[in-house]
What we know:
The chain is α+β, with helices and mostly antiparallel strands. The chain is about 55% helix and about 25% strand.
Amino acid sequence: MWKVSLAKHIIMCDLQFMRIDLKEDVVSLTDFARNTKQHAKDLAAGGRARILTQNGKAAVVVLSLDAFEKMAHDAEEYRMDLRLREAAESYANGDPGTAAKTMMDRHGKRAQTRRNSGS
């Protein structure tokens, strides 16, 4: 969801958990390099990302570790939700799925292959 407030001259982007204030959170790569310690503190405390620009164009997004982990967790949950919906839809359309024994055999073979390739 994008929200533009012309009265305040602030543009915000809401990515479920992360708000980016383009006036506050967009900084040059040079400024970030000069003030890395302060930016790192702000990132850890506020949870908002920094968009770093190079030659006036967005080049890099920097997140705190907590924000990155939450984003990765949410993305994995979303992927799993899509897979579950797809499986439920297939089942509703008459596809019985794969037998548990067949799946366990497949996973066992994959695990054995990984163990063998790691040695």
